[in-house]
């Protein structure tokens, strides 16, 4: 079997309120649980769905599922006292002769799940399994943190800024090779985790993060006040049915980006980061943000294809909130502008110009990271490197330049 999903609906939801369990709460007349279940049924990559429930929700969920039509295997299984117990029980239910190759784990309290989210993670998981003896990397939906973060203790204490570089808000779905995540859960029963990705890392597994399109839809229903926000994000306003519009004509756009950053002095704090990949032991680049010259060039290429200015226009270096910022925030903003047009990124070509570090040994790492960040399959991502034969600043080893070209498909105006 290819891919299974665990839909977690066994939580007590005490913060939501004492009335109905939150997974049975209705958003525009539909129970929260059904939003994610419908997405799993519609996802082409899913063969088997397991809904994990509590004793409190068992009967109601059975009644709901009786009206659902699907040719996929659909099981309802009793969960445990804690989320971690529930996941382990669900994985053990899936084990055996018909065990899936991969499994996605999703909180039913995140009703904004789309079939495309599931298929994107399942496809990427399959690509990460290179057939080696090492367990393949896990994958988790996540959003780069863009807000200013501070640590607050009392009104009398000063606000303590927290460096948000590399900070993400973890979401679900989270996906794994089935046997690897089952083994991890069975080995970690004595330690409490609230996230399957961190549990997987605790036993030596690797985890990639991916920002899914329309990622804010995956917010979690935790408090009663979240229901209104979710209805807005999900676009559930009641409206009379309208005829489907004709498919818009598509035009191809090409965007080009170029960026340069100088190396800092040896021994300075920080690490060299290119395309979101860290190069240990190399001198870091200097810049207002994290100086990821590769992502800057790529982001500007997207802005160019959209005719939307450049990074400096959207994220001015004069604004202190972008000091040390993770450049994935910039890239995600550019990608969000593509999605807002109804278009898509279909190809990217990145060239790094430097004497060091050596790019060849890390080329696959760079392509994998760019795939996770953009949602493109690796076969649509080119990463190249060249030198200037000792000429100029790059030839003298003073810095790194990057150029990127992207192809966009955008709907044309009527």
CATH architecture of the largest domain: Alpha-Beta Complex
Domains (count): 2
Order the strands across the largest sheet as they lie in space. 5-4-1-6-10-7-11
Q: Please mark out the parts with pLDDT under 50 across 5 or more consecutive residues, or reply none.
A: 14-18, 236-246
Tell the overall outline: globular
From the 3D structure, determine the CATH topology of the largest domain.
Spore Coat Polysaccharide Biosynthesis Protein SpsA, Chain A
Strand content: 25-35%
Q: How far from one another are the termini?
A: 45 Å
- Helix fraction, binned, reads 25-40%
Account of the protein in words:
- With 414 residues, the protein is of the alpha/beta class.
- It has two domains: 232 residues, Alpha-Beta Complex (Spore Coat Polysaccharide Biosynthesis Protein SpsA, Chain A); 162 residues, 60s Ribosomal Protein L30, Chain: A (2-Layer Sandwich), CATH 3.30.1330.
- Helices cover 29% and strands 25% of the residues.
- It is built from twelve helices and 17 strands.
- The strands form five sheets. The protein has a seven-stranded mixed beta sheet, with helices on both faces. Strands 12-17-15-16 form a four-stranded mixed beta sheet.
- Strand 4, helix 2 and strand 5 form a beta-alpha-beta unit.
- Helix 3 packs across helix 5 and helix 5 crosses helix 6.
- The longest helix is centred in the N-terminal third of the chain and has 14 residues.
- It is globular and about 70 Å long.
- About 4% of the residues have low confidence.
């Amino acid at each position: 079997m290819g891919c299974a999903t665990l839909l977690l609906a066994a939580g007590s939801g005490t913060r939501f309120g004492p009335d109905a369990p939150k997974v049975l709460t209705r958003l525009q007349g539909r129970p929260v649980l059904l939003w994610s279940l419908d997405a799993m049924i519609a996802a082409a990559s899913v063969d088997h769905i397991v809904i994990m429930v509590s004793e409190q929700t068992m009967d109601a969920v059975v009644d709901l599922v009786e009206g659902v039509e699907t040719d996929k295997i659909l099981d309802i299984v009793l969960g445990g006292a804690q989320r971690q117990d529930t996941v382990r029980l669900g994985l053990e239910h899936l084990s055996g002769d018909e065990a899936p190759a991969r499994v996605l784990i999703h909180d039913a309290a995140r009703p904004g799940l789309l079939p495309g989210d599931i298929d994107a993670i399942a496809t990427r998981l399959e690509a990460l399994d290179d057939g080696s003896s090492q367990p393949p990397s896990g994958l988790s939906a996540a959003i780069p943190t863009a807000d200013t973060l501070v640590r607050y203790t009392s009104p009398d204490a000063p606000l303590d800024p927290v460096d948000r570089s590399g900070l993400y808000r973890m979401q679900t779905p989270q996906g794994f090779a089935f046997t690897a995540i089952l083994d991890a859960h069975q080995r970690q029963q004595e330690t409490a985790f609230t996230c399957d990705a961190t549990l997987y890392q605790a036993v030596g597994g690797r985890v990639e993060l991916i920002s899914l399109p329309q990622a804010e839809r995956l917010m979690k229903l935790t408090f009663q006040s979240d229901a209104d926000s979710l209805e807005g994000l999900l676009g559930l306003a009641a409206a009379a049915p309208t005829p489907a519009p004709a498919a818009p004509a598509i035009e191809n756009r090409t965007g080009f980006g170029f960026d340069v950053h100088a190396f800092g002095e040896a021994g300075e704090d920080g690490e060299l980061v290119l395309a979101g990949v860290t190069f240990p032991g190399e001198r870091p680049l200097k810049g207002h943000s994290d100086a990821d010259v590769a992502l800057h060039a790529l982001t500007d290429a997207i802005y160019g294809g959209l005719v939307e200015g450049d990074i400096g226009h959207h994220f001015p270096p004069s604004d202190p909130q972008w000091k040390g910022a993770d450049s994935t925030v910039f890239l995600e903003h550019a990608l969000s502008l593509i999605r807002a047009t109804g278009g898509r990124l279909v190809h990217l070509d990145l060239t790094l110009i430097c004497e060091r570090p050596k790019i060849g040994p890390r080329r696959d790492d760079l392509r994998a990271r760019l795939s996770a960040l953009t949602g493109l399959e690796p076969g649509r991502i080119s990463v190249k490197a060249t030198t200037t034969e000792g000429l100029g600043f790059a030839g003298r080893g003073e810095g790194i330049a990057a150029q990127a070209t992207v192809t966009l498909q955008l709907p044309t105006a009527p």
